[in-house]
What we know:
With 61 residues, this protein is an alpha+beta fold. It has three helices and three strands; from the N terminus they run E-H-H-E-E-H. The chain has a three-stranded antiparallel sheet. The longest helix has 12 residues. The mean pLDDT is 89.
Amino acid sequence: xxxxxxxxxxxxxxxxxxxxxxxxxxxxxxxxxxxxxxxxxxxxxxxxxxxxxxxxxxxxx
Length: 61
């Protein structure tokens, strides 16, 4: 089974066209896709989590 694709935060921000500050504000409110903190401290977002988050927001409009 293939490992899930993990996106770097700048890749996510570019895809959703959002600033880092706006993303962290949404994250503080519990409205952002789930982040995974790696042992080295870097943050990643699973592709499946981002797609699910985007689909949830697309249906809201």
